[in-house]
Amino acid sequence: MSSTPEQLSLGVSLKDDATFDNFYAPAGSANAQVVAALCQQVEGTGEQFVYLWGAAGAGLTHLLQASCHYAESRNLSVQYLPLSEVTGFAPEALLEGLEHLDMVCLDGLNAIAGKPDWERALFNLYNALRDAGRLLLVAAPQTPRALEVNLPDLRSRLQWGVTYQVQGLSDEEKIRALTTRARERGLELNQEVATFIVQRVPRDMNQLFCYLHRLDHASLAEQRKLTIPFVKKTLGL
User: What residues does the Chromosomal replication initiator protein DnaA ATPAse domain cover (predicted)?
Assistant: First the structure.
């Protein structure tokens, strides 16, 4: 991931398994259309500016990082910034010069809403990226209109390009996503055990996958199958 010297000091990194292939989006679903639009953006056949919004756990961070991985696979320079983690830094130090990259991905846009210096810097970044013909992908829990931005010019910029809502998964879809991810890791996770996990832990998909990661390591270390008693013991349920 390309970075400026200031950004390198932040320790911002991408999760290796944050890919489009690992994002549960059944064919024909609204989320499948979102994935297709993000692929087209990176490939240069879609929109220059894309705004994603959705509830916590819908997979916004996963999709932004997946776009970064996909861009890098196509030899594009890209920067991912989780804004909630960098608001204590001067925005000019982080955003200035990003228009020289092929793509910029800003996560958690709500974190800078209402902060005059950040709003002005983001407004300038939008203009710089437009003039340079670069790609911008942003995400927030709210729509562009609902985001509590004070700078009118930035509010108008947020509505450039196209906006997509990322849909959260039903419990049934989370079970399928969990069993699919387990299979990809070489784990045998039957529907009964997957249902037990989904019904008893926080249902945020990131958290569910973290639990699966723990189970994978414990299963390997103890040479045990993923049974309900083993899951109870490992996760302290």
Answer: 14-163
User: pTM of the prediction?
Assistant: 0.82
Characterize the bridge pairing of strands 49-53 and 135-140.
parallel
Mean pLDDT of 42-55: 97
What is the per-residue pLDDT for 30? 94
Tens digits of per-residue pLDDT, 165-180? 999 888 888 898 889 8
Q: What is the pLDDT of residue 184?
A: 83
| The domain made up of 5-165 is a member of CATH 3.30.200.20 | no
Hey, where are the domains in the chain?
Answer: 5-165, 171-235
Q: Among 80, 59, 19, which residue's Cα sits nearest to residue 164?
A: 59
Given a cut of 60, is residue 7 above it in pLDDT? no
What whole-number distance in Å separates Cα of residue 89 and Cα of residue 6? Answer: 10
In CATH, what number does 171-235 get? 1.10.8.60
60 close to 85: Cβ distance less than 8 angstroms: no
Residue 236: pLDDT over 80: yes
- Output the average pLDDT for the chain: 90
